[in-house]
Specification:
single chain; alpha/beta; Rossmann fold; 6-stranded parallel beta sheet
Length: about 500
């Protein structure tokens, strides 16, 4: 009767530390942890104690007897991991690393810029040290960053992570300074004068562009705009035009799946979630019947994760179909098995549908004065040095659509007075250290990859650099503390 990790796993690995028999893997520090889409429970050694359920911040773990029909595939997915990775040499009890202590007991003040998951996990890591206090700045009047404005509203279990962040903020030594934009209301130099350390955790708020003709036509926008819109982000108030039957989303990562799902889900099922009410009203009068999710490579190279694909395939009110683009789907992994099954499905009359289409890359967005379609070029797969890439063929095709959403990844923005790597869209750093006293964590440190919980290990690495610098005397003492400015009245929605 094992417990099972399901779709909303955030990979912060809190469950790994809670498990008394070390049956959850990969664990932080083990091979494969950094790339893992989720963690898995070994059905052979789980003792069913439920400690992991209590530790999980997003309600992702259940006893297998409580799985819904849609969650059943996760039982096999957890077990399959241990067939491939037996972890035979693991110790019977989980190892809890000893708590590090600073060599000096003098008070330390740290400013964290960004109140999203990356910043809050960094605060939690720092507050393990009683000498340390943190001020967490955010330009918005509400905290939690992408956990509030990025997670799809129908992923209510993932949104439970807000409870963890509220618990972090309730600790002694934690202060929010919301509604303050660092770089405008106060400079990074000013922060460095006032605090022993500054940790920048501003994420990657821009989106990558396609660089094709027609990209700036009305009806062509980014998926990140749409995500911000349905989550009520103050910077993304403009509604997409849903007065069309077909939408094309370019790119097939998890953001593309989120947007495709929200645009096709029955609005009645979204009512009662955290969705923005104006967005809900717009979705209620939407004419959209089909969302095509376009991948330039093949089914086996899709960017979405297996847990998200399993969740999509289980949708009842929406048809999820696959057009393989001429590439035979070899059912070698759980993801390709699910895709092969989807490819055999036929549309049911009257249903909205999501079509996962492969081996097609955008060529130009069409329309005289607003979007009428997307010209795509078929691709074939070519393997170079072990990497599978998409090579354009001579064949093109037009997909008629009234809305084209690029979903080809987020990108960091340069910050005033901080170095910036234009190619990678990050602040250049060594394991989170920019220079003694200045650090980065989250997407502005490593680029836009991973899940909410990935930021926990990322923050631990960055904070270790700051503690090393304190212990080595690399950080100078700071002057008397003066409260930084507040731009507008801040409030915290819990
Ligand atoms: P992503 O996973 O990096 O996917 C980007 C997609 O864009 C890929 O399909 C990529 O194709 C495609 N692409 C890039 N450049 C392109 C171009 N010029 N033309 C056509 N296609 C292009 O990005 P994302 O979906 O924005 O997700 C960002 C991160 O957030 C990921 O780590 C994701 O897992 C995470 N996230 C997680 C969840 C969740 O757990 N529920 C939800 C949302 C986001 P190639 O693969 O061929 O490069």
């Amino acid at each position: 009767m094992p417990h099972v990790v399901t779709q909303s796993c955030c990979a912060d690995a809190s469950c790994v530390l809670a498990c008394p028999v070390n049956c959850i893997h990969p664990a932080p520090g083990e091979p494969g942890f950094a790339e893992a889409e989720m963690v898995f429970i070994d059905p052979g050694s789980c003792v069913d104690c439920g400690a992991c359920v209590t530790a999980c911040p997003v309600g992702a773990i259940k006893p297998h007897t409580k799985l819904t029909a849609a969650e059943e595939p996760f039982l096999a997915l957890n077990g399959e991991y241990f067939v491939a990775e037996p972890h035979a040499d693991r110790t019977p009890l989980a190892l809890v690393p000893p708590q590090r202590r600073l060599t000096s007991r003098a008070p330390v003040r740290v400013a964290i810029v960004g109140a999203g998951p990356a910043g809050l996990y960094a605060a939690d890591e720092l507050l393990k040290h009683p000498e340390v206090s943190v001020d967490v700045f955010d330009r918005l009047p509400t905290p939690h960053g992408l956990a509030r404005h990025g997670v799809a509203p129908d992923h209510q279990t993932t949104r439970q992570v807000a409870d963890l962040f509220t618990a972090i903020a309730d600790q002694p030594g934690f202060t929010y300074r919301l509604g303050v934009e660092v770089g405008r209301d106060i400079s990074f130099a000013d922060l460095s004068e006032r605090y022993h350390g500054v940790i920048v955790a501003v994420g990657a708020s821009a989106d990558k562009r396609l660089g094709i003709e027609g990209e700036d036509l009305p009806g062509s926008t980014s998926a990140t705009d749409v995500v911000g819109w349905y989550n009520g982000h103050p910077d993304h108030r403009i509604a997409p035009d849903l007065d069309c039957e077909r939408v094309v989303v370019v790119g097939n990562g998890n953001v593309a799946l989120d947007v495709a799902r929200i645009l096709t889900t029955d609005p009645d099922m979204l009512a009662g979630t955290d969705i923005d009410l104006d967005a809900l009203a717009a979705l209620d009068s939407s004419r959209v019947r089909e969302v095509v999710v376009l991948g330039r490579r093949g089914p086996a190279q899709a960017a979405f994760t297996t847990p998200e694909l399993i969740g999509l395939a289980a949708l009842d009110d929406v048809d999820v179909l696959v057009e393989d683009g001429g590439v035979a789907i070899e059912s070698t992994t759980t993801a390709t098995k699910v895709l092969a099954e989807l490819a055999s499905r036929r549309p049911r009359p009257g249903r909205r549908r999501i079509v996962l289409r492969f081996c097609a890359q955008p060529e130009r967005i069409l329309g005289p004065d607003r979007v009428t379609g997307l010209e795509v070029r078929r691709t074939r797969l070519v393997t170079v040095d072990g990497a599978v890439t998409a090579e354009p063929t001579g064949e093109t095709e037009v997909i008629e659509a009234g809305l084209v959403l690029r979903s080809v990844g987020y990108r960091g923005r340069p910050l005033p007075d901080l170095p910036f790597d234009e190619a990678r869209g990050i602040v250049p750093n060594q394991s989170g250290r920019v220079r003694p006293g200045l650090y980065v964590t989250g997407w502005i440190k490593r680029g836009p990859t991973g899940f909410i919980g990935t930021n926990k290990t990322c923050a631990a690495e960055t904070v270790a650099q700051l503690l090393d610098d304190l212990d080595a005397g690399e950080i100078r003492s700071v002057g008397a503390f003066a409260t930084p400015p507040r731009r507008k009245r801040a409030f915290v929605r819990r």
